[in-house]
Amino acid sequence: MTEPMHTGDVLRIEHIAKNYGAVTALTDINMHLGKGEVLGLIGDNGAGKSTLLKILCGFQPPSSGQIYLDGEAVTLKSVDHARSLGIDAVYQDLAMVNQLTVYQNMFLNREKVRWPLLNNRAMRREAREHLDEMGVRIQDINSPVAKLSGGQRQAIAVARSVFSNPKILLLDEPLAAMGVKEGAIILDLITQLKHEGKVSIIIIAHNYGQVLEVCDRVNLIQDGRISLDKRSDETSAEELTELVVAEYRKALQERQRASA
Question: Tens digits of per-residue pLDDT, 153-164?
Answer without folding.
Answer: 888 888 888 888
